[in-house]
Amino acid sequence: MDAPPEVNLDEENVLAEQSANEDRLWIRRVKSGNIRAFDFLIRKYQRRLYSVVYNMTANKVDAADLTQEILVKAFRGIHTFKGESHFYTWLYRIALNTTFSFIKKSRKTSHCSLENWDDAEVHANILSHSNDLEVGDRATLLKELQEKLNEALQKLSLNHRTVVVLFEIEGMSHTEIAQMLHCSEGTVRSRLHYAKEQLKQLLKDYLKDYEA
Amino acid sequence: MKPKKLNFSLEELLHLKRYEMPPEAFWEAFEKQLQCRLALEVERKRSFSLVKMLDALYKNWVRWFPLATCLCVLSFVVYTQCFRAEKLSNRFVVVAEDIVCHRALKQFVLSADQQLSSVPVKNLVSGSQKIVATDTYKRFSF
Description:
By secondary structure, chain A is mainly alpha-helical. Helix content of chain A is 72%, strand content 0%. In chain A, helix 2 crosses helix 4 (87-106), helix 3 (60-76) packs across helix 4 (87-106) and helix 8 packs across helix 9. By secondary structure, chain B is an all-alpha fold. Chain B has 5 helices and no strands. Chain B is rod-shaped and about 135 Å long. The termini of chain B are far apart. Classes of the chains: A mainly alpha, B mainly alpha. The interface between A and B is large, with 50 and 32 residues.
């Protein structure tokens, strides 16, 4: 019999609560004038923020610049954070608003595939997590598939793309996403379902178990 | 030619994107650049706190305008009332002084008259006392 999911959920909740308490402590320090305390929050969230922005914009240069802008905005406005929600919810909201504004302004559709990193380490990292392919095939095929996926993601509307990125890539819950986007959980589920159907349609030639 | 299918579901493929992260060298440069931007932000915060306050006042003038107008009107009313009261009290003082002076002078003139009438005419030089007293009386009895 499988382990009861309640245990895992409880553990997750405890960890989340610990993390939130830790954030509150550091935020209090920043508010009391200890600027260096913000470094802790930067190190904790910069990669996650970058990942969201990168998957939304599909451009590494823009993603780096936007992530920095988001963190500066957060620093500027940390005195307005009242602690009614989790810090990361507040931070992600800034991230999403900044990214939406940027995308709307630039209307960029270009994307950056994995080769653009000029680093074998990144590609190897992904490959190490996809060991169900034969070694010879998987590098080429996976690279191609990732490129197709990036293209397909960029074809989604902003709202649909956001939900897919936050739920499937960042691993957030429907409730958290609903809080961030100021909409109902039902809307989040509906958007996610529609977005995944669109992605499956766009990638039907590459994915298993999919018949249009 | 139909592309070769991979043994991936959409969810698995999306999960793989979690590992699509830049190398460590990127983060070092990123943090350095971010620290510079934050330092500039701190400097800006310090130098422009007053400007920011004025700017906030300016931006929220719609909120402050009725309050400021009420305050101006109120202070104008208070000032004019005080000024009027002061002026009136001064006038009362002047009037009171007039009355006092008037009585005193009247008394003085009367006594002077009596003195003059009792003094023999030959001793009167020019009746200057009476003239002076009358002048003063006239001056104060307007």
